[in-house]
Amino acid sequence: MSTERDPSTRNPRPFPYELRTFPMRLVDGKVPDEVAKWTQAVALGFYGNAPTAEDIAKFAVMEEVDGRMSTGAYLTDAPGHAGAWGPEYPVATYAYHRKNLNVGGGTLLPVHQITAVTVRPSHRRRGILRAMISSDLAQAKAAGIPMAALTASEAVIYGRFGFGVATHVCQVEVASRGGIGFHNPAAAARGTVEVADPLTVRDLHNGIFARVHAATFGSIGRHDMYRLIASGQGNYASLEPSRNVRAALHYDAAGAVDGYVSYQPDESATPPTVKIVDLLAAGEGAYLALWNYLGSLDLIERVTWDMAPEADPLEWAMAAKRDYKRTGTEDHLWLRILDAPAALAARSYAADGRITIHIGDPLGHASGIFSIEVAHGTATVTRCREDGSVAPELSMGVSELSSAYLGAVTARILQAAGRLREEMPGAAARFDALFALPVAAHSLTNF
Ligand SMILES: CC(=O)SCCNC(=O)CCNC(=O)[C@H](O)C(C)(C)COP(=O)(O)OP(=O)(O)OC[C@H]1O[C@@H](n2cnc3c(N)ncnc32)[C@H](O)[C@@H]1OP(=O)(O)O
Description:
The chain is α+β, with helices and mostly antiparallel strands. It has eleven helices and 19 strands. The protein has a seven-stranded mixed β-sheet with strand order 1-2-3-4-5-14-6, with helices on both faces. It is globular, with a radius of gyration of 24 Å. Bound molecules: acetyl coenzyme *A. Acetyl coenzyme *A (ACO) binds at residues 45, 114-119, 124-130, 150, 152-154, 156-157, 160.
């Protein structure tokens, strides 16, 4: 259940800002001034290097590929402090691109991906984020997008806007001194692994990711910059290539590349460690074979990865399971259902049955009473009348439903956490039977 106050009951605050939204792109081969200043403001907010004009042009070319739209909040009545950034620089930034989310059963659901949220320190806590996200989510809903998503820098900001933690990633350490021993060595030796120039990873990235994305429940689309991130060629903080990022490719039995790992030494770590920059395994056998390769790195005693799945076949493939240490688990993808019938009908279900739920939504987009009827793994979702003629069996907030959507949490756990109410005995267990999923969702993409 949402604990949010209704925005309409808040005291009106002065809001001397205008929100302007524009596409990220070059115009006649040049960077528009608003794009340049917006990009400078984002770098300020995330403590990145001030980007050069050349960097900004490269960012804009990639962002145009993504169809990225940016919003800036601009002072409408700027007092004009001598020497300070003027009103042409936004005091807050926000952006989105639209890709899709693998919700199982071969379905890729359109998703509105929010990123680059910053508010200048001198303008914080004046409602700018609330204004930007409220208007953006309303426009996404009006455009027919059923789901919004983000990865959060802080855990306490986005629940109030209806987002809930939907996937987790694990930080793992794998002891690799002398190689990784496998229960079934043949399973970790399929195909061939060979060293390659990281630029090859940059060039092959999109094709391999498309295969992994289509096959991985919980995977969300990657933006164009990811080719560079995955291959160590740059990111939004710096477009300078990391020269210590190395890469290896996996070839299937027919000699086609079906996976890669990029990695770099972790200079601050003892014992000698390499950390994975990105690992994509599209073909059968590629995942274990790439780990086998990492285990074969001489002089290295440990391999670390910050994006491991919660259920990792590697852990069960290793002869010494305890050499696989999960050192942390973090929330990763946050989802926000905008259109409950469309989102709930899109995912697949393991069991047939029926439940009626009440969804509370502080922004109104997903609120209502809905009957979910599953037959042969497919749900028919119907909005019910709210005149007292239909009694919901469960009540929850949209943040809670968004967390349960890909199976990150069950209704019974949410009930025990005080975040969901059973209106009829046994309803939480029936919801869980319907929503249970055979695999844990895994998103491999930061944005
Ligand atoms: C998807 C991403 O891009 S994640 C990256 C997010 N960006 C950052 O973390 C960069 C640094 N931080 C910032 O730029 C800003 O502090 C932001 C964006 C987090 C918040 O912006 P603000 O304009 O100050 O938020 P705003 O005034 O609209 O507050 C909205 C609500 O969130 C709450 N809130 C905002 N930031 C925080 C926080 N860090 N911790 C707790 N509550 C917060 C406010 O209290 C307010 O609550 P209410 O409306 O229910 O009373």
